[in-house]
Amino acid sequence: MYACITYVSEIQCKPPLQDWSFFPSYQYMGDIINRSYPESQRIDTSLSSNNNIITQSKRILIVDDDVDIANLYKLSLERDGFSVEIFNDPLLALSRYKAGAYDLLLLDIHMPRMNGFKLYQEILSRHSDNCMKVCFITAFEEYDKRFKELFPGLDEADCFIRKPIALKALTKKVRSRLMCF
After folding, report:
1. Dihedral through CA 68, CA 89, CA 137, CA 62, nearest 10?
2. 8-40 tens-digit pLDDT
């Protein structure tokens, strides 16, 4: 919507002023994450024979059309030692996907142009990356039945992240999914 100003000789239309100052900055969001994790939590990269420890920085791909949520997840997971790449467009993510580049995919189900289930199916059909793990992100429960139809071999409890999710719970879920073989 444009605000129009009428002058005696002409009509001049200008876009409305947009004040984005009420949105928190990424620095502010990073500070919130740092306060949520007062201790320095990092993934232990040491080799250990008696523990089931993740032995290297795991790579995660997040595809979510909500830019703020994707960035918040990225900041939180990177704070915990993961290497994270995000895409807000599923078609762009599909075109740039490289087999073996990620240890875990976090895919939002409800996205424009292509939903998360279809994106995962396309990745599997194009790359047949059998080692790839996936978690679907959703705020809706209506996808449970469709998930079971499309992916009967995947465990629903391991493969779903319900929005909203606390950042510590997200990290716990990601670590849990990466540990199961």
Report:
1. -80
2. 555 555 555 545 454 555 556 656 666 665 554
Listed in sequence order, the residues at least 6 apart from 69 whose beta carbon sits closer than 8 Å to its beta carbon are: 163
Q: For residue 49, count other CB atoms closer than 10 A to its CB.
A: 5
Grouping H, G, I as helix, E, B as strand and the rest as coil, residue 86 is: strand
Q: What does CATH list as the number for 24-37+52-179?
A: 3.40.50.2300
Task: Provide the CA 162 distance to its chain's centre, in angstroms.
Answer: 12
Write phi, then psi, for 73 (nearest 5 degrees).
Answer: -60, -45
Report helix, strand or coil for 169. Answer: helix
Q: Tokens 């790449």 appear where?
A: 85
Q: Where are the domains of the chain?
A: 24-37+52-179
First to last CA, the chain: 53
Q: Which residue has the higher pLDDT, 127 or 113?
A: 113
pTM tops 0.85: no
Residue 146 phi, psi dihedral angles, 5° rounding: -65, -40
Residue 153 has what pLDDT? 72
